[in-house]
Every structure is written in structure tokens, then in C-alpha cells.
Amino acid sequence: MVRPYNKPMAQSPLGFDLPDSAATEALGAALARSFSSAGAGAGAGAIVHLRGELGSGKTTCARSMLHALGVTAPVRSPTYTLVDTYSVLGLTYVHVDLYRVQTTTEVEELGLRDMTGPGYLMLVEWPEKGGAAVPRADLHLQLLYAGEARAARLNAGSGVGAAWLDKLVLDTSLSMYVSNLT
Question: Three-class SS of residue 145?
């Protein structure tokens, strides 16, 4: 069970131990559920920055999240297309992978800022490669190697992200993976 906290989650990172890809997928599905239930996030739109080394689970988490949000199409890493979009019930989900970009000009040419706001959820892998051309994150998700397993650390970047994390801690399906709430 997730223990209660005394301060908003926006003030503290939320950590999860992810022993296998099923745990990473569970995190993605829980993020989708909490996004859908956090009225501010779903209505206002949101941007998630996914950081981590190659193979740390960024795409696995994004794929699970998008499938849980209703995307039925195959979700692959947009490493070569750079941007993939999916529309479900009037919402647009944008999956971005900036691993191969070389300059912020390349990122600006993608028109990412035109794919933000109400009705949009943007998941950006490798946001650090895009510098200031990448829209500001509402939620930061860092995936790390932890021996043979992985770990995830989430931080809010805005009020929308804080509301999202407040809903996420209520999802009891993740209780076995919680590593910290401080």
C-alpha cells in the first residue's frame, strides 16, 4: 500500500523499482489511468519527458501508456520517423524520439509546439537532445538501470504534473513497486 504523504507530490520525486518489463508496462498503464482521471491533465493536455539510457525502458513505458489510453495501432519507437501521432476519441497522442536529431533547428522544424495544449498528450524521448526547442514538461520520467532491473523516478514540472502524480499515488496496482515517497 502506498503510504500517505504530507506534502504535494510536486515537491518530491516518486520512485519505483521495476524488476522486469512487465513492471515498466504496469507503470505505463498506471500513468495512463491517472492521466485520464486527473481532469486537469486530460483536459488541458500534457507533456511528458522520458529520460534514460538506451534500453532503459522509455519506449516500453510509452507503448504501454498509449495502449492503455486506447491506441490500437502498433506503437514503435519513432527513432526514424521522429514523431508518431495517434488519435483516439478526440484526443491526439504524440510520441517523439529525439535521439537522432543533431540541432535545435531540426527540432523546431518538427513543429512540436503546434502539437501541445488542450486535447494533446506528448511523450518526448531524449528531450535533452532538443534543448529549448522542446516544450516544457508537465511530468519528468527518468528510467535508470538498477543492476539487472530498472528504476523509475517521476517529478512534476507543473501543476498539471502535480495533479497527475497525486492521482498516480492512489493507484494501488503499483504498490509493490514503490521504492520511495520522500
Answer: strand
